[in-house]
Amino acid sequence: MGRKLFVGNLSFNTDERRLEELFQSIGPVDSVNIVRDQMTGRARGFAFVEMQSDEAAQTAIQKLNETELDGRKLAVNEARPKPAGGGGDRGGRSGGPRRREPRW
């Protein structure tokens, strides 16, 4: 297990300080990064928290998953590596929907 955690279902009003305080109640925290929209700067509703040890990360998952913070039930689990290509579920393609060629 890794030390980096994904924290989902965050309130758009939750800030890094509040999230760090919550996770520090479990153990030492290395970093907190609330992911924001690049254009607007608005929080996107999820964050990454890196704990100082694997044990603290595991304890944070057990104790904080499905707990309430700022009126929202958190989803806390181990962060997964970003898919290759950075295209998410779109498979690395750019543009809109694919057009199909007619079969003759």
Search tags:
104 residues, alpha+beta, Alpha-Beta Plaits, globular
Give the gist of this structure.
The protein is built from 2 helices and 6 strands.
Give the secondary structure arrangement, pairings included.
Blueprint: E1 4-8, H1 16-24, E2 29-36, E3 43-51, H2 54-64, E4 68-69, E5 72-73, E6 75-78
Antiparallel strand pairs: 1-3, 1-6, 2-3, 4-5
Average of pLDDT? 87
Q: Helical segment tally?
A: 2
Beta fraction? 25-35%
Number of strands: 6
Radius of gyration: 17 Å
Structural class determined from secondary elements: alpha+beta
Q: Tell me the domain tally.
A: 1
CATH superfamily: RRM (RNA recognition motif) domain
Biggest β-sheet: strands ordered side by side in the sheet: 2-3-1-6
CATH topology: Alpha-Beta Plaits
The CATH class name reads Alpha Beta
Task: Tell me the series of helices and strands, N- to C-terminal.
Answer: EHEEHEEE
Major β-sheet annotation: 4 strands, antiparallel
CATH architectural name: 2-Layer Sandwich
Distance between the termini: 53 Å
- Can you give the helix content as a percent range? 10-25%
Low-confidence stretches: none
Global outline = globular
